[in-house]
Design goal:
Mean pLDDT: 91
Oligomer: single chain
Radius of gyration: 19 Å
Number of domains: 1
Strand content: 15-25%
Number of helices: 9
Shape: globular
Number of strands: 9
Strand order of the largest sheet: 2-1-3-7-8-9
Length: 280
C-alpha cells in the first residue's frame, strides 16, 4: 500500500512538472520568465564592469541538460571557485533545471547561450579572464541541450567555435564536462585559450546520474583543498589522478582520460597560482 501511495505521489509530481514545462523554453510563461532573468543578469554584468578596472574574472556557466542535477551542481561549484579567486567576478548562470531544482536562472537554450557568450566577449578587456563552463550529456562533437523530456538542437564544435570567435586574443578558460568532450579540442583551442575536457575524444565521462551533486571531473578539479594556491596545470594534474582512481575503484571502463590544451599565449597564466590571476 505504501509503495503504491509513494508511486502515485511521484507520478502526480512528475505530471505537474511536465505541465509546468509544457510550453517549453522557447514560448509561453517559461520563456517570459527566462528572458526577464537573463535581462537582469546582463544588466548587472554591465554595472559590475563599470565599477572596477580591468583585471577581473568573467564567468559564464551553462547547465544544459535537465536530466541530471549534477550539471547545475557543476555550475554552482565553478561559481564558488571563481568567487574564491575574485570576489568581484562577474557571474552569468544559465540552466535547464532537473526535476526538483529551482527555475531561478535563465534557460540554457542555444539562443541564450550565444547571447551570453557575446556579452562575455564584449565585457572582457585585455587583463580580464573569461571562464566558461558547459556541462551536459554529450557524444562525439555533441553537447546536448535538453529541457524536461525534450531534446533541442545540440551544440557542436563548429557552433561553439563561432560563439567564441570574439574572445580570440583574450585570456579564456573553457571547461567542457561531457562525454566525448575531447572531440571538441581541435576546433575550440587557440593561442590565448586553455581548454579542459572531462574525457578524451572517444571516451565517456562519469558522475552524471540524476541525483549526483557534481560530475566526477568537475568535482575532482574544483573540490581541492587550498584551491587558489595552486596553478591550473597543478589542479588538472591532480584531477586526472583523482578521476582515474575513482573510476578504478568503481570498475568503470574504459577510463575517461580528461584532457588539457594550453595555447602558446596562455602558458604563463596556466602556471600561475589562481590567487594571482586577478589584478589588484
Amino acid at each position: 500500500m505504501y509503495k503504491k501511495l509513494w508511486l502515485s505521489h511521484w507520478i502526480v509530481l512528475f505530471a505537474l512538472f511536465l505541465a509546468g514545462c509544457a510550453t517549453g523554453p522557447y514560448q509561453g510563461e517559461g520563456k517570459t520568465k527566462s528572458d526577464a532573468l537573463l535581462k537582469q543578469q546582463l544588466e548587472a554584468a554591465d554595472q559590475q564592469r563599470a565599477s572596477k578596472p580591468e583585471g577581473r574574472i568573467i564567468f559564464a556557466g551553462f547547465a544544459m541538460h535537465s536530466q541530471s542535477r549534477a550539471f547545475r551542481g557543476d555550475v554552482l561549484l565553478a561559481e564558488k571557485s571563481v568567487l574564491a579567486i575574485d570576489p568581484n567576478a562577474i557571474v552569468l548562470k544559465l540552466s535547464n533545471p532537473a526535476f526538483g531544482q529551482d527555475a531561478d536562472w535563465p534557460y540554457a537554450t542555444t539562443q541564450n547561450m550565444e547571447q551570453v557568450l557575446k556579452k562575455v566577449s564584449a565585457l572582457a578587456r585585455d587583463n580580464d579572464k573569461a571562464v566558461i563552463l558547459m556541462t551536459t550529456h554529450g557524444n562525439v562533437d555533441v553537447l546536448s541541450v535538453n529541457f524536461s523530456t525534450q531534446y533541442y538542437p545540440h551544440v557542436n564544435a563548429r557552433v561553439l567555435n563561432d560563439w567564441l570567435k570574439d574572445l580570440r586574443g583574450k585570456q579564456t578558460l573553457l571547461l567542457l564536462s561531457a562525454c566525448y568532450s575531447g572531440s571538441f579540442l581541435p576546433a575550440v583551442g587557440g593561442p590565448s585559450r586553455i581548454v579542459l575536457t572531462a574525457s578524451a575524444k572517444d571516451r565517456s565521462s562519469f558522475g552524471c546520474q540524476f541525483h549526483s551533486t557534481n560530475t566526477y571531473f568537475m568535482d575532482a578539479l574544483l573540490n581541492q583543498a587550498e584551491l587558489t594556491s595552486f596553478s591550473l596545470e597543478q589542479l588538472m594534474a591532480q584531477a586526472q589522478k583523482t578521476v582515474d582512481q575513482k573510476e578504478r575503484n568503481q570498475k568503470l571502463s574504459p577510463p575517461s582520460l580528461p584532457q588539457i590544451s594550453i595555447g602558446t599565449a596562455a602558458k604563463v597564466w596556466s602556471n600561475q597560482a589562481l590567487k594571482d590571476w586577478v589584478v589588484q
